[in-house]
Specification:
Rossmann fold, single chain, 290 residues, 19% strand, 6-stranded mixed sheet, 2 domains
């Protein structure tokens, strides 16, 4: 029994380790080598450029890893592609090994006038299958990348198309409601207006009270003149209150979303208040900074 416990423990550890290991990744797409087998009226440099452009188009449009152009030329055997290589299984296998490819596309590039024709033959290295593909015509004023991208599925119909990248363009957002604040000028105008309103109300009530008293009892001329002066002052203060409140409202409506950096914070942000209990009630304090 004592020998069985370590064996069981080792089995459990091995199973846990195997479960913890990540699952093998999905097999990647085929690797396709673009081999220029024949050129007519086309320079070697131009043929390399077309092979590289075709490899880029295949990689861009399909889920394949394509190699072409100078990357293929430097891996070819000395002297280039052997004659009748496409018809020889050993030659196809050797090229695939050199290019580390699972599939090959043999190209015959022929220039007729200003146009170029590409005849392609596809070869499967594993099965030895060889299939001719439709001809690609590259006109003089055409762009090779666009033509090859359009022909990618015809050259490799078995390959899956690469999913298109989804690009989300930010839409034109509607302007949010404008946040407003009370600038310092609005606080000052509003405060002056409220103070004028309070003063005018006090003077108006005082003048009215004195006037009613004089109706009941005889008042001296100075008292009567004081009633008129207080009533005039009350009217002036009420007019100033209307102007001050109006200025504060206009400044508030014209305020920006946030106060300027050079402007002091609103009065409410600089006010502090406290309430201290006392035996007879409470004592309130309000501190305002300027």
């Amino acid at each position: 029994m004592s020998r069985l416990v370590p064996v069981v423990l080792l089995s459990v550890v091995a199973a846990a380790t195997a479960a913890a290991q990540p699952s093998p990744a999905a097999p990647a797409g085929p690797r396709v080598g673009i081999v220029v087998e024949l050129t007519v009226n086309v320079s070697p440099d131009r043929a390399e450029q077309l092979g590289a452009a075709l490899a880029d188009a295949l990689h861009r449009e399909l889920e394949v890893d394509a190699v072409g152009g100078a990357d293929v030329t430097r891996r070819l055997p000395e002297g280039g592609v052997p004659d009748e290589c496409l018809a020889r299984r050993d030659c196809v296998t050797d090229l695939a090994r050199r290019l580390d490819a699972t599939e090959l596309l043999f190209l015959a590039v022929v220039q007729v006038g200003a146009d170029i024709q590409l005849d392609a033959s596809w070869a499967d290295v594993a099965t030895g299958e060889i299939v001719a593909r439709p001809r690609i015509e590259l006109l003089a004023d055409a762009r090779a990348g666009e033509v090859f991208s359009a022909a990618a599925t015809r050259l490799l119909p078995h390959a899956r198309r690469r999913p298109l990248a989804v690009v989300v363009q930010p839409g034109a957002s509607r302007p949010a409601a404008r946040d407003r604040y009370l600038p310092r000028g609005a606080w000052l105008a509003g405060g002056a207006g409220v103070a004028a309103l309070a003063g005018g109300a006090i003077l108006g009530l005082s003048a009215r009270s004195t006037y009613q008293r004089c109706l009941r009892d005889e008042c001296d001329p100075d008292t009567r003149d004081g009633i008129g002066r207080r009533a005039l002052a009350a009217d002036l203060l009420l007019g100033g209150a209307v102007v001050g409140v109006g200025v504060a409202v206009v400044l508030y409506l014209r305020s920006d979303a946030r106060p300027p950096a050079t402007e002091a914070p609103p009065l409410a942000a600089r006010a502090r208040w406290s309430v201290t209990p006392s035996p007879g009630g409470a004592f309130a304090e309000v501190h305002v900074g300027f």
